[in-house]
Amino acid sequence: MANFFSTRATKGLLKVGDIYCPKNGEFPAFSEAAGTAHLNSLIKNIPSDDFSSLSMVLAIFSFFPQFVLRWITGICTNAQNNPSDGMLPSLLRQLNIGLRGLCYSIYYSELTNPNFKGQTPLQVMGYQLNRITD
Amino acid sequence: MMYDFIVVGSGSGGGSLAYYLNKSGAKVLLIEAGRFYRKDTFPKTEAETSAHLYWGGGIEFAKDGRMGFLRTKMVGGSSIVYQCLMDRFDDIALNDWKQESGVDWFTPEIMSAHYDQVESDIALHTFVPEERNGNGKLFIKGCEKHNYKWDYLRRGQSDCAVDRGNDCIGCLGGCFRDSKQSSLVAFVQKAEKEGLEIIPDTEILKVEPNADSCKIHGYQNGKKVSFEGKKVILSGGAFGTTRMMTLSGFKSKLPTIGKKFSSHPQFMWLGFQNEIVDAHKGSFQTVASKDPNFRKLGFKLENVFASPISIGMLMNEDGIEHQRLMKQYRYMQCIEVAVRDENVGEIMCDNKGKLTVSKPLTDQDKKRRDLGHQAIENILSASGAREIYKSKFYFGLHLMGGCVMGTDASKSVVNPDFQVHGEKNLYIVDSSIYPNAPGINPGLTIKTLGHRLATQLTK
Ligand SMILES: Cc1cc2nc3c(=O)[nH]c(=O)nc-3n(C[C@H](O)[C@H](O)[C@H](O)COP(=O)(O)OP(=O)(O)OC[C@H]3O[C@@H](n4cnc5c(N)ncnc54)[C@H](O)[C@@H]3O)c2cc1C
Q: For residue range B254-289, what is the model confidence (pLDDT) as tens digits?
């Protein structure tokens, strides 16, 4: 069955995204700017086992208050410095990259929310890429 | 239908092999698990590139969750996204291969004939001073202050239109101009015009060699398919070929399958300048270290950069601090150390085909990394960086080993003629046969091995 983001999982991602990419000066909040409509096209090649776990985690996140999520993402971030190769730190490291990967893909990219009218994160950074195709 | 040759996997190894086999007039089929993209159909954004072109939908991890691996799934394989730096192996790399494998033709003399042929089929360009961008200039400035030797890189490219404002970093998601010499551009499309049969979207799971031919079985868009060739050559890359060999039940006979995996672990650090650097502009990678001392110590430095999402992934900060760093994207310079690592990694595959990769860094790998980091810090400081970001994330783009070549069937998977030990009609040519890590970009040599095997098979 094709991978698909439920409304719950999307809600969880928006919450966690606001921790990785908050409203800050010129930078918009993740929940304002991120193009969640693109999510389903970005996840179709993730192995379905891995996607189910990620989607379940995000759905659970949607019920947590922001301070709990901040604590959890902090644990994932710190797992990167944990010298242990045990199962839990290894999983947390993968979750850390998985969550960041999803958030940054629809925040630091052209795939932002088309209804968002402010400066996109790429515009704030002054990023521009020229493609000469002829 | 019985083919003379079936090549499974269309990357650096499979693409070149299929091209040279097809040129000889043989009936050749090239099978590829991924889609057939062309210059005008590659994804247009960095996010879609990772999600659509890479196996696993982006990055695959070692089981400790530390090291990420990148490999792509499409006609052209990883050569679609590679930077196309084309280096011949030096005497050190070839001697080390010869020693580890017992294969006597790993010599500069024998290999040079194959290098010559492949190089004549690829458009090659060595960068010149005017092509350096801000990042390149800073790298040179830092190296010269420390007396580190550096040199201009040689890249496979025909016409990048940088003088008309093209930014080549975009071609890390597939070249929109057919300038970068991927396996697709240099070999597959040319062979297609000359009648090579190519079947994309078809993943092979099992190979079944017999006395006169070899059958292969897999799935095409969810439907079971089988093909038969007089000879079958696996070119699925280190992970892909190891997976097919394991699923086909060869592991009991050839216990080395999956072993001796190496990947040139790469660690990128950033320096922040006061002036705009624009490391993503123009020809974004033109120079690298060429210091004989670094070579002896087992690492090299590359003057790399990446698009915003990938740069964001290097930083393990949250929220405001992450944004502070990202806001300075245009002020960043970047250098990576690539370690010539020990081949102690292992690629494992369960009976459902799920891969697990173990890739610990050995003490020697860590020592090489640390020496490289010291040199990076020296260069960044000497070139005027006011802040240095020392990323802890690291990844492997050069996936090597898993079905290594050698003379001894108890320590290798293919013999010096690229034949799976004990099998007359099953061959392997791709990075999986690398006996150990050369410490040099592997792509050109993989293509060269494709040429050698084609010459041998069509004799
Ligand atoms: C971002 C990046 C930058 C790089 N830069 C450079 C560089 O500048 N210079 C350099 O020399 N190298 C570079 N490399 C490394 C280089 O691309 C690889 O080493 C090389 O392409 C490996 O060749 P291969 O034939 O072994 O495998 P690949 O090129 O990966 O090809 C394997 C192909 O087999 C297919 N396949 C796998 N399993 C199956 C199956 N079961 N059925 C059918 N098909 C299958 C895959 O989809 C793939 O298309 C880079 C790699 C990356 C990811």
A: 999 999 999 999 999 999 999 999 999 999 999 999
Query: How confident is the model at residue A45, as a pLDDT?
Result: 87
Query: What is the average pLDDT across B39-43?
Result: 95
Provide the token pair at B92.
């050190």
Rg (CA), chain A: 16
Degrees, nearest 5: CA angle B61-B63-B67 = 45
* Binary contact (B51, A41; C-beta < 8 A): yes
Which part of chain B is CATH 3.30.410?
125-168+264-397
Give me the interface pTM, i.e. the ipTM: 0.96
Q: What percent of chain B has pLDDT over 90?
A: 98
**Domain at B125-168+264-397: CATH code:** 3.30.410
Inter-chain contact B327–A125, Cβ cutoff 8 Å?
Answer: yes
CA angle (B434, B435, B436) in 5-degree steps: 90
Could you tell me which CATH number the domain at B1-37+87-121+182-259+401-459 has?
3.50.50.60
The string of DSSP letters for B282-342 reads SS---EEE--HHHHHHTEEEE-----HHHHHHT----HHHHHHHHHTGGGEEEEEEEE---
Residue B173 Cβ < 6 Å to ligand 1? no
Domain with CATH 3.50.50.60 in chain B: 1-37+87-121+182-259+401-459
Instruction: Residue B63: list chain A partners with CB under 8 A.
Output: 90
Cβ <8 Å between A46 and B354: no
- Angle between the N-to-C axes of helices A48-61 and A7-20, in degrees from 0 to 180, rounded to the nearest 10: 70
Nearest CA in chain B to A35: B47
| B280 neighbourhood in chain A, CB within 8 Å | 127, 129
Q: Can you give the length of chain B in residues?
A: 459
User: Count of alpha carbons within 13 Å of B53, Cβ hemisphere only?
Assistant: 29
Residue B78: C-alpha distances to residues B34, B199, B216, B236, B295 (Å): 11, 17, 23, 10, 25
Q: What is the pTM of this model?
A: 0.96
Pairwise CA distance, residues B17 & B454, whole Å = 6
Indicate the residue type of B143: C
In what helix (H) or strand (E) does residue A48 lie, and over which residues does it extend? helix A48-61
The pair of three-digit structure tokens given for residue B456, joined into one six-digit string: 């041998």
Token pair 């710190």 in the structure block, residue: A78
